[in-house]
Design brief:
The protein is mainly β. Helix content is 11%, strand content 49%. The protein is built from 1 helix and 12 strands, in the order H-E-E-E-E-E-E-E-E-E-E-E-E.
Length: 233
């Protein structure tokens, strides 16, 4: 009798344990599954872009008679503005590319002075550049240097001295440029930049006296401008 009671008790305990285990298996888990991870796209500077810019330019040359960009008798600088386009390629933190721009330059009259006589000049002109760019990217910020070719037709003046026969003609002149800037990607498509350039154009002056014709006289000027670009995906 005692043996039967013990057997019944053991069987009851086994059934209770089995039932408890089955019930626990049916209960929901104590921890929720980990949410799916969607990585955000990484920004890259690689791609074509185009945009607009505006700023100020000022003469840094020492030509007394004729500096065709920003040297004149009454003003030494003025507004510049235009458009640019280019291509960047990013490898790691480094970014390289090419850029070209075309700038309108309303820098006041580009006149000439000889002694106490001032000869007025044209107000409008243009210059452009074709440059390489190289820099380091800190995620959406890019610090870069730039340099290359420059050209411009910044107009002549109406000066003509009866003794020296001085005047400067309208023609496209070539030179070089060097500078740098900082650009920041506001969104994946729009960027904003601040840039400074030094430009040296190989301009010429003409004197009929003594055969001084097409004598080199460089036009040297600085440009500080801000711009926005649209980067094509």
């Amino acid at each position: 009798m005692r043996t039967s009671a013990l057997g019944l008790l053991a069987a009851t305990a086994a059934l209770a344990i089995a039932a408890s285990t089955a019930h626990a298996a049916d209960l929901p888990g104590r921890y929720s599954p980990a949410p799916a991870y969607n990585a955000l796209p990484v920004f890259t500077w690689t791609g074509f872009y185009a945009g607009l810019n505006a700023g100020y330019g000022w003469n840094v040359g020492d030509s007394r008679y004729y500096d065709p960009a920003f040297r004149n008798g009454k003003r030494s600088g003025g507004f510049v503005g235009g458009a640019q386009a280019g291509y960047n390629y990013q490898f790691g933190m480094f970014v390289g590319g090419l850029e070209t721009d075309l700038q309108y330059a309303a820098v006041g009259n580009k006149g000439a002075s000889y002694g106490t006589t001032y000869y007025p000049g044209d107000s409008d002109g243009f210059f452009g550049t074709i440059r390489a760019r190289a820099g380091v990217a800190f995620d959406r910020a890019l610090v870069y240097g730039t340099g290359g070719f420059a050209y411009g037709d910044i107009g002549g003046n109406r000066g003509y001295d009866t003794l020296l026969g001085y005047h400067s003609g309208d023609e496209i002149n070539w030179g070089w440029t060097l500078g740098g800037g900082v650009e920041y990607a506001i969104t994946n498509n729009f960027t904003a930049k601040v840039e400074g350039l030094y430009v040296d154009l190989d301009t010429k002056d003409n004197y009929t006296l003594g055969g001084r014709v097409n004598v080199d006289r460089d036009a040297e000027f600085g440009v500080l401008r801000a711009g926005v670009n649209y980067k094509f995906n």
